[in-house]
Each structure stands twice: as structure tokens, then as C-alpha cells.
């Protein structure tokens, strides 16, 4: 075959680079020369040096023969070339003739043999000059030295010897370079490389100028020379990296091709040069980022020369050229994509690879036709020489054969020689390679369907080439895709070709699979073809080759015998993929069975093809849904045959069915329905097991070889339905793929909620009273064993949901002072004999109104070998213990012993809440999870507000000031209750007045909506920064005396020495938080108190004393841990460390609110109550969040008699207390109202001086004159600015505010008593 049509020359495909030759380097024996060569060629370059100029270096031997320059022509007028472009021109300028020759010499300036080395160097330079006569190649000299040169002007010897050396060698000084071999060798080589590149650029620029001079001498008759010179100019421009100019010259040369008249003689030359130029143009267009222009140029190029075939006898030569054009353009496209060019599904390299493969196919057809005609019509005297060198057919020009034109014998001889060369070409390898590259591109750009088509073409090419194994592999990979997409025609064709490949490659497994699938009616073919396939299939089952020996070659016959001898039986075939051959369905007779029932499975089989099939056996594979690794295999032993679906439906309602035994290799007729039966005992499976039909199996074949047909048991309704019972299977048969083996649970529970229930309640859950907050709500659970079975280790485990663990608790002990609260409890019932029962009582305590869903788990142990116990055995005592864990599952309560299960619409069995665990081989533990729902309602709605003594809202409290607390309570209980008592326990830092201790009398009965109010007078003794805890009190009792002098000194001494160790000096609020430990851990011993949002949003945890944790009040089970146990005090007084009457430190407070507050706790308001006519007392506790406490400028206390009578004198006393360390100078004025309601005696105006931390009393005698509400005399205070000039009006206003808050405004005057009237 012609070398110009099959591939482009390698020198055309590479990127042209300047050629620089090195002389004088002995890299084999001199390490210095080797390192210099590596530095230039890139072996020592770093990854950051990738931007270095593209230069090609060549090491020249000592006696290198440079090409001899051709003599110059004076004129091109009578010059007619034999061709357009010589084969050796690109090779010469790329690899043979360097643009720069560099001579390397080892010379030191101080070398004692300098003269001899200088003479030797000049001789070498002169020899190179003689070899490069009439060449424009640049010549330069590089001196290799061991040390770096000195700066210019400092080394006089170097300057002198440089001048001497350049003069002896006859080269200019700029052509002499010094290369020190030091650690900076790479830097020096970069500089030298830049200088060499400049020389090369000047050489190629001069070369371009010379070519232009020759081009300008051409006339219109020199069309071929114009093309040659334009190509050379473009090539030289590429070497100079001037791609735009190179593209312009190439395009001009391509246009000049149109000036040459095309005929059969020069057609190959023109197409060859056109291919070269098109390749260069497209390559440069891709490089210059104009891909659309490159694609358009290629399309125009192909359209122009696609019809220029040339000699018809050599048409294969034309198709080879077209294939080469497409393949090289695809490679250019791929390279451009790697450099960042985006491609599309409609335009990518795979399209051109595929087109190249198609032209190779056309080339094969044309070559076969040409070879057949040439060998038939060839002259007997003309015989091709088989030993002839292919290059002898071509001249030194591209595209021109060395055949004398006009000599028919010579042309025929050349054509025969070309045909002989073409006949030895491997077409299949070329086609497969191109198709493989095309498939890769189509896969990248998501053209999957076309990729499948290419895979089929490749498989066909493998089949034509005789590589049946690879063809079978490709066909097998494409079969599932076409099967899934329902391409029946394509799939049938691919299936038959796969079957043929399996036959020719002796693949037993693939042949059996394809043969069974080819039996389907959806594939094209007659019944006789399917009968022949079935006969061949049974021959393979009998270990006999599928076709008669006369139809198989000896080689294939031997392959079949070897394959059949090594076949592994059975061969699995998935019927879900191989469709329309055999239809299998399976269903359980019942979706739920007991342990003593019989499991029965029906298998419905139908042959979908028109030829009968013989099946050896049918099996069903069952598995446990919970443990899929446990599988069971059942064989069908009985069957019934029906001719249609209506008979199958009628047999479902029939009581008598004639079952026949299933025989081996039973023949199944087409269009008949076979119903097979598999049976087994249910006790072979574990209780509480869900059985699922996983797979159906049908064994086909003989004992020597068989096919195992498997099908998934999941029934999939066909996309097309007939909507008639005569054709739709699922309208006639209920398909249940799951069967549940229900367990037997031997315990029943009956739960009674609330107070006042009777012992013989028969309901499962009965409620007599509703649960309230802060109440121990009783729950009585009756556990009965209605079966004649002896049960051991019977227990009830109860747990609170995780979301309610901190607000709802359980307990079994409500004795006074020992309330243990748990998040989960375990009640051990013990043993229960048959037909016996036992009760378990526990209490629920809730801190908030919510729906409570307790998780209840019943457990017992059953001795399977132990006989049933007597029904007269007495019940054992119930034991209680805390459990470490609780069940997270909360299924609804089921009271039917697992005998009734709801069946889902999809015929799937409901999983029972009963769990089974084998303790050992003879004991079984069963448990069941239930849910108990209880609604908890609110008991009281509590709110509290703070006021001044004048009934004004109080924003903040002054230290030492009396203020009012109004506590309002609304009954929210849905049932009548009795309130026994209510009282307020204040913090140690507050003091209640004696008036607050008077108990309020309550009625006997309160209903929903009743409201109560309590008024309490309080006074605080400390600000937040001085807030005292129990620990501070113990420490300060020993250190400080409660006197004025000690208080005065406390402010003077160092605060660090006297402050409590747990309270660092800070702001008042942070000191309070640090002392009281509100953000510390929640203690185990605490009082759990309702906290109203209107009062506080705080999560408060007062620090618990260590001794409180060690007293044993919060003793919990070691298994349960601190998180599941809480302790609540039945009486609020037990929750405080008393320091007075209804006053003390709170041991522990736990609130349900999420948002913390910074205010202190002023105390706890407690309400003792009980249900109407009940004995159990409950206590609701509410924390009172306080206000900010500040230091006042003056404390004012007013004392007046409780009752006042007309015309009876009374004492009106005002106490002024100075809480500061400064002396206060005041003016007190008492003014009587204009109505003269009182007669007053005392100082109407008085100047006062109150020492630090001292107090003064103002006493007045009032004589009331009228009955009823009377305005009291008004006391006004102001600072004496004469004695204390620092005081101003703003401070007087603050003082007036204190007076208004503390002094009463009116008083009610009673009439005279009778005794007074008598007097």
C-alpha cells in the first residue's frame, strides 16, 4: 500500500523547533560534559522551568557531515520540478542541518598549556567553517571553566586571552561565551539558551528572506514551485513560533493547489499535499483558539477531495487517504480538548474516529474488489515481484510513484504490486482500534446509544477477523442494554450473533443462556427454528456438541469436546433478565400462621414459548426477614395442570383438587398453567419470624449438565393489562410473598388508673380520677396468665419517654420523707402458674401538664420442657427495683396474645410487639412492649407581684425596705379539692413581718376557677453582692459581731481578707451568681417545684451541701445512676435549712423552665391540698423570683397602731435609719391637712443629723377628730444644704420618693367604743 495514503510523515506531525548542534562534548567519559548536556536538554530542569523556550538540541559527532549546499540558480524560467515537496526537506531542517553550531572547549585562563589549546581550538573552528561553507549556520564558541569569572575590567589576563582567542579563531567576541561549571550551572545555561535562541531566530529569519527572494522570481507557469515556497515559508514561520504568519502561508499554499489541473496522474500528489497543508492549517487554528474555523476548514477540505478518486483500480488508495485525514483530525481535536477546548455531543473527536473506521471498511471492500479483478485479468507475463521494496515504487517527492507514465505494462505491474501490498494489510485491527477510540469519546460526551452501536460494530469486526471470544464478550455486554430498552429487532439480531459466537468459541454457558432466551416468541424466527434450537440445547445437556460433526470444523469440534468435559453444572440463568420463556410466581396460602400450623406455598408456572419444556424440579427459597442469611429451600412435590386462568380461579374455591406427584423431567406444555405445592411444618421456624419468598428455581437438563432457572419472587404487575380475568394473572390469584409466624404471649394486663378503683375491674385500662400536677397518681396493673403454662421471672418494666425524663417520674414508695423518684422502674412479679394473676402498684408524679405515654415491657421466662404448673399455687410477693435501661420502642397495646394481627393492604404481615430470646437450649424469654397513656392536668395557676406599702408596683427593692407580696392562686383542677394550708418560706436574706404568719382560713371545698389571694410583707437585709448563703453564714458567725462599729470597720478593711472564699470581687449580680452557685450542677437532693413563667424563667440550682448528699435521702440503685433518680420532699419545710420561722436556705431547686434568669430567689410559696374526701395530702410549690436589690440613701419605717378610734390619741412614730457611712443632715417637716382631721403634737419642723449606720425616731401624737378614711399628716424630708452643701435638688427628689414609698397616706378611724361613750 502507498505510504503517502495510510499515514502522515512523522516530521509533519511534530511541532517544529529550532535545531542547535553541540560539538566537543564527551558525555560518555566526562562528567562535566554530561552535566552540561543534561542542563541544556532538560534532565536537570525543575518543574518551574516549563516555560523555557522550545529548542531542539543535537549532539554532533567530531566528523559530522553537514548537507552540502546546492548551487544557486540564476533564474527559474526554464526550471520545471518533478514534484512539489521533497521527502527529505523537513527532515533535513528538523534533525540534520542545525541553525546554530556550538563548540565546547575546556580552557582555563591560567592554563600553562594555553597556547597549545588555543591552536587546537582554532583548528576545530576552522574545520567547522569549512564544513558549513555557503551555509548561514551560526558558529559560536563556549569555554568551560571551573570557577566563575570576575566582573568585567578586573581580570586583565582574561580580557587579553579572550581577544587572542577570538582573533585566532576568526570569530567576533560576541560569539564567545564563558560557562562556569559551578552550583549555578542552570542559571548560566538559561542565559546561554536565550543567546542561542536569538542566533537561531536570526538564521531562520534570513532563511525566510532567501525563500521569499526565490518566490519573487517565479512566474505564473511555476505553480508547483509557488506551493513549495509557501509551504517552506509556513514551516520556517512555525519554527520561529510565528504561528499566525505560518497559518497565512499554509493557507496560501492550499489555495495555490487549485491552480493545478487535477487528473489521474497527479491526483495522489495533490491530495497528499492537500492533506499536509490541511493538517498544518487545522493544527494552527486549534492552537490559536479558533476551533470552529478548524472544523469548517476540515469539512471544506473533505468535501473538495472526497470525489477525487483517481485511478479506479486504486480506489482503496483514496479511501485510505480519507481515513487518514479523519483520524489525524480527531487526534488534533483530542489534543485541543486536553489544552482546554470544550466539546459538545454534536461535535467531538469520536465522530471523526468513527468516520475514519467507516472509510477503512470501504477501503477493504475496494481492495478486495480490485484484488479480485487484478488477479483475474492479469497478463501471464506480468508477475509481481514479492521481494520488491515498497519504497522503490515512489520517488523523492511526496505522492509521486516511480512509474513511467504512458507505459501500460509498467502501470499494470505497479498496480499489481500495490494490490499485493494492500492485500497484506490488517483491516480488522485498524477498524477495531478506531472504533475503540470512538467509543471512548462517545462515552465521555454521554452519547451512550451510539456507543452501543459502535460496540456492536466492533463485535462484528471481531467476528469477521475470527476472534470469536472478544466478539462474544462485546455481544454479551450489549445484550442487557438492548433487552432493557425493548429493541426487539436489534436485540434478536444481536442475540443470534451472540449465539453464533458462543457456538464458534465453544462457550457452553453462553450457548445455553442464548439458546433458552432465543426460544421466546418475541424473537424473530419460525417454530421449526426454535425446535432446532431446543434439540441442540438438549444435545449440550447430554454433553454432545450442538450441531452434527459435518457442520462443525475439526478445530471447533475439539473445542466443544474440551469445554463440555470441563463444564460446571448447573449453569444459573436469571429469568428476570431472560424474559418471555418461563413465567414463575409463588404465594403463601396464608399470610399469618401459628406455631402448630402447616406452611403451604403455591408455585404457578406457565410456558410462554410455543415449544414444550422439560423441567426436572422446582424449588422455593425462603428467608427470615430479620436475618436474611438464614434461608430454607423447599421442593415442589405435587402439581395440578389447568388449561386457562378461569379453571385456575375456580380451583381456588374448590374443596377437592386432584393433586398429582411431580415427575422428573416432566414436560410442560405451552399456554398451560401449572400449580405446584410445597409444604412444611411451621414449628420448624422460630416464633415471631417473618418468612419471605426470596427466589424460585427451576432445574432444566440432565444429570451431566443442567441449567438452573432462577426468578425473583417479587411480583411486578405488567405495564400492559388486558383488564380481563381470562388473561391477567393477578386478577385471579392473590400473591402473598410474606408469611408471619405469630408468637404466643402468655400474659394479659389490666390497668386501673386513679383513686377509688375496685379490685375486680375487667377493662384493660380503666380510669376513675384524672391525674393532676404535683400528685402521686396511683396505677394498678393486674398481670394474669390465662394459659396452662408455668411462667418464671415474670416482670414489668416501666420507663418514662426521654423527652419527659426531667418532668415525669415513677415510684413505688410514697411513705413520708422517703419518696424515691425514678425515670424507670422494674417490678418483679416472680412466678405465675397457669390460670393465676398478680397485681403491681406504682405511682406517677408529674411536674407539668402533658400527655404521658409510659413504655411498658412485660417479660417472662418459659421452660419449654417443664410441665404446666398447678393453678392453686399461691402468688409470690412483688419486688421492686430500678432498671438500668429502658426500651425505646413504643408499639400500641395489644391484648389478643398475638393471635389477631392486622393485614396490610399489600398483603404484608404486621410485626408483633412480642420479642423472643433463647436463654439456653431449654429456656425461652419472651417480652412485649406496650404503651400506657395518661393525661396529666394542671392543679393550680399561680402568679405573684411585688408592691410598695402604698400599693404601687415595685420595679426594684431597696435594702432594708418593707414591701408587699401579693400571691394569687387559681384552682385549675378538674375535680373538687380541699386546700388545707398555704404559706410562704422566704430566703434567709429576707424577713417576713408578723402579720404574714397569720394563717388564712380556707373553706372545705374548691372547684375549678376559684381564686385566692395572700398578702405578705417582706424586707430584705442584703443586696445581691452581700447575699448570704448557708456556707457564708457558718463562716461569718465566728468572725463578725453584729454591731455598728464592726459594720463600719467591715467597709474599711481589705475586702479580699474578709470576703467569703467562694465569692470573688465583682459586680453585685456576678457576686450573687458566684456565691449561690445558680449555674452549677443540678444536685441529686432537691425539691422539685413548679415555676410559673410569669414569675421567672430561670433554671436555678442552689448549691447543695455535701452532707445533704451523704444522708441517704437520694439513695438510688447503682445500676440506674443519678440521671434516672430524683428525690422530692413531701413537705417544703424539709427542703430548707431553717434559720428562723418560715425562713432559711433552700437545699435544692429544680425548675422546668429553659431560659435562665439573673434575679435571686425570694422564696417558695407552698399550697397543701388533697382531693375531696381523700386522705393523701399533696403539696404544690412555686418559686418566687425576686427583684434587683440596691442600696438606699435612707431607710424610713413608719409605725402606727392597728386600730384607731375617734377622739382617742395615738402614737405616730417614724424611724429614720442611715444605711451609709456618711452623716446625713436632714430637715423633717410635718404638715397638717387643711381639713383639720387631726390634732397633732410634736415638732412640726426639726433639723436632724444622723450618724453613719445610726437611726433617729420622730414621735408624734395624733388626735383624730372625724370617723372614716382620713388623710394622715404629711411628712416631708429634705437635705440641709447649709450643713451639707454637696446635696442638690435631684437628691432631694430621690429622698422625697423614699418618703412617698414608706409613709402611709390614709387611715380608717373607728367610732368611739361604748365604754368611751359612757365615760
TrEMBL record:
- Keyword Nucleus in the entry? The reply is no
User: What is a single Pfam family found in this protein's UniProt entry?
Assistant: Gryzun-like
The alphabetized UniProt keywords are:
ER-Golgi transport, Golgi apparatus, Transport
Localization (cell):
Golgi apparatus, cis-Golgi network
InterPro entries found in the cross-reference section: TPC11, TRAPPC11_C
Domain Trafficking protein particle complex subunit spans what residues? 266-519
Gene Ontology cellular-component terms listed: TRAPPIII protein complex
Q: Which GO terms describe its biological process?
A: long-term memory; protein secretion; vesicle-mediated transport
The segment(s) forming the Trafficking protein particle complex subunit 11 C-terminal domain are 1222-1275
Described by its record, this protein's role is as follows:
Involved in endoplasmic reticulum to Golgi apparatus trafficking at a very early stage.
PANTHER family linked to this entry: FOIE GRAS, TRAFFICKING PROTEIN PARTICLE COMPLEX SUBUNIT 11
The entry assigns this protein to a family as follows:
Belongs to the TRAPPC11 family.
Q: What is this protein called?
A: Trafficking protein particle complex subunit 11
Give the originating organism: Drosophila willistoni
Name of the gene encoding the protein in the UniProt record: Dwil\GK13115
Amino acid at each position: 500500500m502507498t505510504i503517502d495514503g495510510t499515514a502522515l510523515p512523522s516530521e509533519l506531525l511534530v511541532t517544529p523547533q529550532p535545531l542547535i548542534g553541540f560539538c566537543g562534548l564527551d558525555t560518555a567519559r566526562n562528567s562535566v560534559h554530561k552535566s552540561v548536556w543534561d542542563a541544556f536538554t532538560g534532565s536537570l530542569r525543575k518543574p518551574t522551568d516549563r516555560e523555557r523556550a522550545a529548542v531542539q538540541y543535537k549532539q554532533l559527532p567530531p566528523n559530522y557531515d553537514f548537507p552540502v549546499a546546492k548551487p544557486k540558480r540564476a533564474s527559474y524560467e526554464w526550471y520545471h520540478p518533478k514534484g512539489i515537496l521533497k521527502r527529505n526537506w523537513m527532515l533535513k531542517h528538523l534533525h540534520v542541518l542545525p541553525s546554530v553550531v556550538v563548540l565546547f572547549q575546556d580552557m582555563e585562563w591560567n592554563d600553562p598549556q594555553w597556547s597549545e589549546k588555543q591552536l587546537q581550538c582554532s583548528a576545530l573552528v576552522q574545520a567547522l567553517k569549512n564544513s558549513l561553507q555557503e551555509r548561514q549556520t551560526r558558529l559560536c564558541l563556549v569555554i568551560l571553566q571551573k570557577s566563575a569569572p570576575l566582573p568585567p575590567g578586573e581580570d586583565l589576563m582574561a580580557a587579553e586571552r579572550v581577544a587572542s582567542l577570538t582573533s585566532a579563531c576568526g570569530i567576533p567576541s560576541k560569539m564567545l561565551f564563558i560557562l562556569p561549571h559551578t552550583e549555578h550551572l542552570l542559571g548560566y545555561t538559561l542565559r546561554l539558551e536565550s543567546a542561542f535562541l536569538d542566533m537561531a531566530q536570526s538564521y531562520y529569519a534570513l532563511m525566510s528572506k532567501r525563500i521569499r527572494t526565490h518566490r519573487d522570481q517565479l512566474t505564473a507557469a511555476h505553480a508547483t514551485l509557488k506551493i513549495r515556497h509557501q509551504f517552506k515559508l509556513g514551516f520556517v514561520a512555525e519554527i520561529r513560533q510565528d504561528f499566525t504568519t505560518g497559518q497565512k502561508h499554509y493557507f496560501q499554499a492550499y489555495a495555490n493547489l487549485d491552480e493545478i489541473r487535477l487528473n489521474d496522474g497527479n491526483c495522489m500528489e495533490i491530495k497528499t499535499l492537500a492533506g499536509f497543508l490541511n493538517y498544518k492549517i487545522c493544527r494552527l487554528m486549534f492552537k490559536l483558539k479558533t476551533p470552529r474555523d478548524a472544523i469548517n476548514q476540515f469539512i471544506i477540505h473533505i468535501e473538495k477531495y472526497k470525489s477525487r478518486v483517481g485511478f479506479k483500480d486504486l480506489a482503496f488508495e483514496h479511501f485510505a487517504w480519507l481515513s487518514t485525514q479523519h483520524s489525524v483530525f480527531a487526534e488534533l481535536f483530542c489534543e485541543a480538548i486536553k489544552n482546554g477546548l470544550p466539546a459538545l455531543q454534536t461535535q467531538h473527536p469520536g465522530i471523526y474516529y468513527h468516520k475514519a473506521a467507516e472509510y477503512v471498511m470501504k477501503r477493504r471492500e475496494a481492495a478486495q474488489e480490485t484484488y479480485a479483478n487484478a488477479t483475474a485479468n492479469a497478463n501471464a507475463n506480468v508477475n509481481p515481484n514479492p521481494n520488491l521494496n515498497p519504497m522503490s515504487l515512489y520517488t523523492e517527492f511526496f505522492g509521486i510513484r516511480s512509474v513511467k507514465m504512458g507505459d501500460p505494462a509498467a502501470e499494470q505491474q505497479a498496480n499489481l504490486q500495490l494490490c499485493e501490498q494492500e492485500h497484506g494489510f490488517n483491516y480488522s485491527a485498524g477498524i477495531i482500534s478506531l472504533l475503540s477510540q470512538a467509543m471512548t469519546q462517545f462515552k465521555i460526551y454521554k452519547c451512550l446509544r451510539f456507543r452501543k452501536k459502535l460496540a456492536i460494530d466492533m463485535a462484528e469486526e471481531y467476528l469477521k477477523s475470527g476472534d470469536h471470544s472478544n466478539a462474544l464478550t462485546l455481544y454479551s455486554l450489549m445484550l442487557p442494554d438492548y433487552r432493557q430498552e425493548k429493541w426487539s429487532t436489534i436485540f434478536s439480531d444481536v442475540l443470534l450473533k451472540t449465539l453464533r459466537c458462543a457456538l464458534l468459541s465453544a462457550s457452553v454457558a453462553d450457548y445455553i443462556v442464548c439458546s433458552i432466551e432465543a426460544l421466546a416468541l418475541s424473537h424473530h424466527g419460525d417454530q421449526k427454528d426454535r425446535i432446532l434450537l431446543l434439540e441442540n440445547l438438549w444435545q449440550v445437556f447430554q454433553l454432545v456438541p450442538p450441531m452434527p460433526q459435518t457442520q462443525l470444523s475439526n478445530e471447533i469440534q475439539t473445542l466443544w469436546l474440551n469445554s463440555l468435559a470441563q463444564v460446571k453444572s448447573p449453569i444459573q440463568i436469571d429469568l428476570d433478565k431472560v424474559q418471555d420463556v418461563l413465567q414463575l410466581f409463588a404465594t403463601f396460602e396464608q399470610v399469618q400462621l401459628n406455631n402448630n400450623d402447616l406452611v403451604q406455598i403455591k408455585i404457578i408456572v406457565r410456558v410462554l414459548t410455543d415449544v414444550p419444556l422439560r423441567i426436572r424440579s422446582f424449588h422455593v427459597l425462603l428467608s427470615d426477614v430479620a436475618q436474611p442469611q438464614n434461608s430454607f429451600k423447599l421442593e415442589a412435590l405435587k402439581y395440578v395442570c389447568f388449561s386457562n386462568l378461569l379453571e385456575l380461579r375456580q380451583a381456588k374455591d374448590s374443596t377437592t383438587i386432584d393433586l398429582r406427584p411431580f415427575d422428573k423431567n416432566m414436560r410442560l406444555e405451552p399456554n398451560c398453567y401449572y400449580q405446584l405445592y410445597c409444604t412444611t411444618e411451621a414449628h420448624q421456624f422460630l416464633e415471631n419470624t417473618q418468612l419471605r419468598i426470596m427466589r424460585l428455581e427451576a432445574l432444566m437438563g440432565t444429570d451431566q449438565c443442567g441449567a438452573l432457572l432462577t426468578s425473583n419472587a417479587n411480583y411486578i404487575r405488567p405495564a400492559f393489562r388486558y383488564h380481563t380475568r381470562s388473561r391477567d394473572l393477578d386478577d385471579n390469584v392473590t400473591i402473598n410473598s410474606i408469611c408471619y409466624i405469630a408468637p404466643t404471649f402468655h400474659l394479659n394486663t389490666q390497668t386501673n388508673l386513679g383513686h377509688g378503683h375496685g379490685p375486680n375491674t375487667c377493662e384493660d385500662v380503666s380510669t376513675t380520677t384524672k391525674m393532676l400536677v404535683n400528685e402521686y397518681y396511683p396505677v394498678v396493673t393486674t398481670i394474669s396468665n390465662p394459659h396452662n403454662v408455668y411462667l418464671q421471672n415474670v416482670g414489668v418494666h416501666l420507663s418514662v419517654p426521654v423527652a419527659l425524663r426531667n418532668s415525669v417520674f415513677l415510684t413505688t414508695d410514697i411513705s413520708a420523707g422517703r419518696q424515691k423518684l425514678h425515670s424507670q422502674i422494674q417490678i418483679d412479679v416472680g412466678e405465675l402458674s397457669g390460670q393465676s394473676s398478680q397485681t403491681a402498684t406504682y405511682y406517677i408524679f408529674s411536674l407539668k401538664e402533658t400527655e404521658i405515654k409510659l413504655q411498658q415491657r412485660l417479660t417472662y421466662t418459659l421452660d419449654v420442657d417443664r410441665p404446666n404448673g398447678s393453678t392453686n399455687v399461691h402468688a409470690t410477693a412483688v419486688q421492686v427495683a430500678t432498671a438500668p435501661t429502658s426500651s425505646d420502642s413504643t408499639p400500641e397495646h395489644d391484648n389478643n396474645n398475638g393471635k389477631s394481627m392486622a393485614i396490610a393492604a399489600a398483603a404484608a404481615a404486621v410485626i408483633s410487639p412480642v420479642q423472643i430470646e433463647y436463654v439456653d437450649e431449654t429456656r425461652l424469654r419472651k417480652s412485649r412492649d406496650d404503651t400506657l397513656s395518661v393525661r396529666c392536668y394542671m392543679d393550680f395557676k399561680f402568679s405573684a407581684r411585688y408592691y410598695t406599702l402604698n400599693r404601687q408596683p415595685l420595679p426594684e427593692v431597696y435594702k432594708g425596705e418593707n414591701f408587699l407580696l401579693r400571691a394569687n392562686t387559681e384552682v385549675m383542677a378538674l375535680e373538687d379539692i380541699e386546700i388545707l394550708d398555704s404559706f410562704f418560706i422566704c430566703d434567709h436574706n429576707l424577713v417576713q413581718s408578723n402579720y404574714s404568719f397569720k394563717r388564712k382560713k380556707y373553706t372545705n371545698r374548691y372547684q375549678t376557677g376559684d381564686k385566692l389571694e395572700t398578702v405578705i410583707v417582706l424586707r430584705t437585709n442584703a443586696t445581691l453582692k452581700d447575699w448570704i448563703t448557708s456556707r457564708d453564714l457558718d463562716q461569718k458567725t465566728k468572725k463578725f459581731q453584729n454591731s455598728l462599729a464592726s459594720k463600719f470597720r467591715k467597709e474599711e478593711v481589705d475586702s479580699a481578707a474578709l470576703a467569703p472564699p467562694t465569692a470573688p470581687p465583682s459586680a453585685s449580680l456576678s457576686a450573687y451568681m458566684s456565691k449561690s452557685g445558680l449555674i452549677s450542677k443540678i444536685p441529686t437532693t432537691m425539691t422539685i417545684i413548679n415555676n410559673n413563667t410569669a414569675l421567672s424563667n430561670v433554671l436555678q440550682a442552689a448549691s447543695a451541701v455535701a452532707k445533704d448528699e451523704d444522708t441517704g435521702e437520694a439513695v438510688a440503685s447503682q445500676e440506674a445512676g443519678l440521671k434516672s433518680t430524683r428525690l422530692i420532699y413531701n413537705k417544703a419545710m424539709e427542703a430548707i435549712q431553717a434559720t428562723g420561722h418560715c425562713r432559711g436556705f433552700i437545699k435544692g431547686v429544680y425548675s422546668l423552665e429553659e431560659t435562665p434568669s439573673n434575679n435571686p430567689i425570694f422564696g417558695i410559696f407552698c399550697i397543701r391540698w388533697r382531693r375531696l374526701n381523700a386522705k393523701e395530702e399533696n403539696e404544690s410549690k412555686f418559686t418566687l423570683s425576686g427583684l434587683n436589690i440596691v442600696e438606699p440613701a435612707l431607710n424610713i419605717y413608719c409605725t402606727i397602731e392597728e386600730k384607731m378610734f375617734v377622739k382617742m390619741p395615738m402614737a405616730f412614730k417614724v424611724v429614720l435609719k442611715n444605711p451609709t457611712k456618711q452623716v446625713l443632715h436632714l430637715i423633717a417637716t410635718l404638715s397638717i391637712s387643711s381639713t383639720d382631721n387631726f390634732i397633732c403634737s410634736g415638732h412640726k419642723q426639726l433639723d436632724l443629723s444622723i450618724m453613719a449606720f445610726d437611726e433617729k425616731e420622730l414621735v408624734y401624737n395624733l388626735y383624730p377628730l372625724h370617723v372614716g378614711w382620713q388623710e394622715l399628716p404629711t411628712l416631708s424630708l429634705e437635705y440641709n444644704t447649709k450643713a451639707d452643701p454637696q446635696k442638690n435638688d435631684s437628691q432631694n427628689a430621690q429622698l422625697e420618693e423614699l418618703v412617698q414609698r414608706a409613709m402611709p397616706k390614709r387611715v380608717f378611724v373607728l367610732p368611739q367604743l361604748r365604754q368611751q361613750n359612757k365615760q
